Amino acid sequence: MKTTLEIDDQRYREAKAHASLTGRKMKDLVTEGLRLALRLAARVTGPAAAAASRELAACFAEADQLMKAAPRVPIAREHLNKGRNRLEKP
Questions:
Q1: How far apart are CA 67 and CA 64, in angstroms?
Q2: What is the pLDDT of residues 23-80, one digit of tens each?
Q3: Domain assignments of the chain as residue spans, ordered by start
Q4: Could you give the C-alpha distances from 51 to 10, 34, 36, 38, 56, in angstroms and in order?
Q5: Burial grade of 42 (CB within 10 A; 0-12, 13-18, 19 or more)
Q6: 10 Å Cβ neighbour count for 9?
Q7: 6-10, 15-19, 46-50, 60-64: which has the minimum mean pLDDT?
Q8: First to last CA, the chain
């Protein structure tokens, strides 16, 4: 699945450098981070963990609704192709 993440500049630079130094792609690093975070969250038990899990599910549900309601805008590749086609015209 493709998604858009907002990551502060400093964290992004650190993550990108770490991914490069370890020979991985950013998507693999993000996936691994999510896997570790979810594994850690699963170890936490009790009412607080249940509440956190419900909050997380509610956040994902809200994000899904917002993505469905968001207007479709051109992606970067479409912008580049449009610009390329414009430049190729005599």
A1: 5
A2: 888 888 888 888 888 877 777 666 777 777 788 888 788 877 877 777 777 666 777 7
A3: 9-88
A4: 31, 19, 19, 15, 9
A5: exposed
A6: 7
A7: 46-50
A8: 39
